[in-house]
Records
---
Amino acid sequence: ATPKDGLTAEVVVVKSLDGIATRSPDDVTGKIVFYDEPFASEHVNTFRGYGASVQKRIYGASRAAKLGAVAVLIRSIGTGDDDHPHTGSLRYTEDAPQIPAAALGAHSADKLAQILEKNPKAKLFLKMNCQTLPDVLSYNVIGEIKGSENPDDIIAVGGHLDAWDTGHGAHDDGAGIMHSIVALQSLQTLGYQPKNTLRAVMFINEENGLRGGKKYAELAVENKEKHVIAIESDAGGFTPRAFRFKGADSSLAKMQDWMQYFPDNTIDAIRAGGGGPDIGPLNKADGTPVAAIIPDAQRYFDFHHSPADVFSAVNKRELELGTASLASFIYLIDQEGL
Amino acid sequence: ATPKDGLTAEVVVVKSLDGIATRSPDDVTGKIVFYDEPFASEHVNTFRGYGASVQKRIYGASRAAKLGAVAVLIRSIGTGDDDHPHTGSLRYTEDAPQIPAAALGAHSADKLAQILEKNPKAKLFLKMNCQTLPDVLSYNVIGEIKGSENPDDIIAVGGHLDAWDTGHGAHDDGAGIMHSIVALQSLQTLGYQPKNTLRAVMFINEENGLRGGKKYAELAVENKEKHVIAIESDAGGFTPRAFRFKGADSSLAKMQDWMQYFPDNTIDAIRAGGGGPDIGPLNKADGTPVAAIIPDAQRYFDFHHSPADVFSAVNKRELELGTASLASFIYLIDQEGL
């Protein structure tokens, strides 16, 4: 937060962490640093664009504070042509004071950039009253269907329960939660008796430290649970395009053979790659193979961490296709193994 | 239209043309027939679902009129969970009187179905004042970049200019028009000198008889124009998924080799199949090879022929990716030939 009555200062415009690295304390001391970098939209996969753009949100405040800045603003890391500010995690490093940091919607960032171009000495008034509250105890939520042949072998599928509460968290990650629950519910409705135990896991606190995922992994190791695989859905409720898999090459080859069961226009590929944030700790702890469903990425960052991520932004048919693809994938793993 | 003061009649519910075929004049005479069939949403490709659902809109009025019905209503052929009525062409056959026909939005159709389930003798009042105006002269709109090596060899790309004016016609087919114009504009902006003549064609009157496409084909034959290929975009401004091609097997094989130039998550396949409605007449007239860009189909029938097909329903990034894919495809054809 800012001081109670706000703060007023001139604004230094830089593009990115590379930009701030070229500045000296003389340039920055007592000023607000404005990271004005557009989303890296040249990547066809928007998650790559996000990865290329997000470092300034995470480390920009401390880098600027180290040079004497009194606050930072960033152009929101999103693809939407709107004025929604996008939130997200920020890491204060120990080598700098913790200064206020805020994101501007794209239109507001355009406006500020225009003003500063005309008048580089313009002063900006910033007043923020956010606060960090103490931690409270929270929980992962887990449901399962016991396996009929190998009840101790678990196929887990999940998403995360928490969201940045500027919106509903509908695509991030309400969609993943619904994918996971409804995929298992669909198999149950069909009267399917799984060989292995099918488990839907709703991880808590992905957004701010992966605490649910870390605790899940810790308990899995402690309880000697055996996971056949853990699957994540945390990329929105859009038309499904692919699965990603991290595990034995022989397992990947086997899965790619299953492509024949996915009709045209559903899943295009099963390819090598990581699982997802919440199941990363489990993979790291005991080597559990991990996978993820990859929906079409083009619209995700219109909504991600913003007030636009609401229930009505999820298309029912696209969400259902994701659920159906996941249910098919889980069924194949349960029947055929890895 | 109905008589000026409207008409009031009981309602007979059937599902489809198969449903009306089982009815007799005794069931239907003097009544309104309500075709209450949900969209065939079990097809992953929604265009197949549309194909399976659309016959009752086209022929349902005449079939019901032949049995003595005074009007027909249909549940709109769309996938949206809303109350937009979807329009579209209807064909009166000569063996029956031309009775009024209207579409209901999904929610209104639900409500009517509920009322009729409780009270099958319920009467419905229908008043419509639409009219068919005489034909007027209209035009295709064409722009081209002359080829530097083979100016008489034409690569045409197009969509259609007309739309059902309940909405803006943004996906059907404003997107196709923008795809076509901007694909050529992009190549020009890059300073590209095409070998062949690149032509963007905005066909008129696709929706009500393909007259623009037919006239284009007629004039192409008359003027002995040589088309290398004609490409159509008439399936919305969504994330591109594939191209379809109808022509020599050797040309298709050559194109499939170009898949290497499309990075992950843009074009997944170039496959055999028809071109598009507006270029069909040209293909038929002189055997011109035809192709089409295939965007993701899941949301198309939320918008198609309804008040929801507005500018804001088109995602900028998805539209741009379609344009870029088309520009790449045209470039490859221009460079490599078929």
Note: The longest helix of chain A spans residues 316-336.
---
Amino acid sequence: MQVVITGGAGFLGQRLARSLLKQGSLPDRNGQLQAISKITLVDVAAAGFDDARLEQVIGDITDPALLERVITPQTAAVFHLAAIVSGQAEADFDLGMRINLDASRLLLECCRACANVPRVIFTSSVAVFGGALPAVVQDHTALNPQSSYGTQKAIAELLLNDYSRKGFVDGRVLRLPTISVRPGKPNQAASSFASGIIREPLNGQPAICPVAPDVRLWLLSPRKVIAALIHGYSLAADALGQSRTVNLPGISVTVAEMVAALERVAGKPVAARVEWAHDPAIDRIISSWPGAWDTTRANVLGFVADADFDDIVRAYIEDDLPAA
Amino acid sequence: MQVVITGGAGFLGQRLARSLLKQGSLPDRNGQLQAISKITLVDVAAAGFDDARLEQVIGDITDPALLERVITPQTAAVFHLAAIVSGQAEADFDLGMRINLDASRLLLECCRACANVPRVIFTSSVAVFGGALPAVVQDHTALNPQSSYGTQKAIAELLLNDYSRKGFVDGRVLRLPTISVRPGKPNQAASSFASGIIREPLNGQPAICPVAPDVRLWLLSPRKVIAALIHGYSLAADALGQSRTVNLPGISVTVAEMVAALERVAGKPVAARVEWAHDPAIDRIISSWPGAWDTTRANVLGFVADADFDDIVRAYIEDDLPAA
């Protein structure tokens, strides 16, 4: 059982690799557990840990030779996490197209060329929705992305669905809520603040919230995202029916409720480190995303959200807060 | 005022060119009528007519040099009609991707490189919908194509919307109903029979209907398609709001109703030339398409459907039936 993770040196990629190495096995296409013999992390940088089963490939995933080298007939699972995040894809259109669209298609082509069709897991995003939206987005709500990132993710979804329908890959797309709380540093995602306003105060730093307190977000913790990726891989193809895309469960909270949860879990002085400074460019992107979606299908398929945002804050403290 | 039509030697392309040459002018971006000085038809073959204002370019629209040559800073309108039809795109996946996706993207890139952003009109299709559909598809119904053609058209829609949002082009996508009655010969579209069962009997030939009599189609005549293309070009960008995609009006009829209309207009012996021979592959594609969609938005924007199918049959007889 060999696994490939693109964006493998990123926060989610590393965490997924660690979880897979810890659990040690995955079901094969017949549902039989098989030991994981190799995990290949593909990224522009190296991951910060090592394991006898870990291979690290550093390079450009738009390079066909690189993908052809790492995706082989022995590859059973490909987790495609590499992406240019929303803010950066908006600022650099061509880079977003190259990584979020061209590399995704190239990856599908490499999988198609394999004698044994691998399971391919794409991550997508709330950003595929936009425009006039119902209060709760449904599975059958039209995609109308209002950002280049959302457009590129929507296209990758369509490609993966058609490649799966044709039998070229056995694909699954998980539409991720905004992930909070991400550890580490702010990134160029428009939603970076959704982690920053919790992470920075807990680390004794001020944090700027660029959107209004009543802006509603649809959130999932890193713990639950990793569980969803592994669960998404493990589902039988038949369970997915006529669409390979699943809107993952999340919790719907306003930014004000997030800060209130921080105050409940960590105290008033910590929550007081959040400063409010409106940024219209970020607000425009974030406000175009749905604040909640119907998760009936995901629930039936066995995906699970966090209990509430207090739980998410506590999970960050347990998993990621550096020892004082 | 210079106009480019890809697929310009095809049935719609030629008819659009003739209509534009006849009307002689189009509004510019300020709504001022300007004389059409040149129409460039790009296709793999030559169109069967000539005009002093007509330029014919024969070549492959996936060739960047060709598109860069025909789309210039003087180009005000690009009607992108070139496509691999549904049945052929399903049979030859890579050809469909190359023409329906890669060439569309290349065309957008060529337009983006122009100092004066041209208006770009894409045609899309009922085939972008699929799976479990409401009886009447709404503007906000999710795309869930069940064919490679539908997938490629859906992707082109997303690209055109994002290129328009970014200001790279001033785009419009018209989602066409199935066109009936097309003149000429059957083609590899899964919906080819929707013209054939009217055209062949009127020309004294038998025609095979590969789907059940109660299959419902969403139809528009060639006359109304051409009018819609020109109207779609002429709309001000502001009128389109947050989506550049418009579901065109059509009429919703069953195949049995189409044959009944043929009998009313042309008589029982003509209608009796339709033979029923079920083809599961065609039925599967056609039945995944919506039989009707809500056209409120298109109506507000001024697009117009045919009155009924009898009218469509009569229009074919007037416009296209060869003199006996």
Note: The domain at 2-177+220-249+292-305 of chain B is CATH 3.40.50.720 (Rossmann fold).
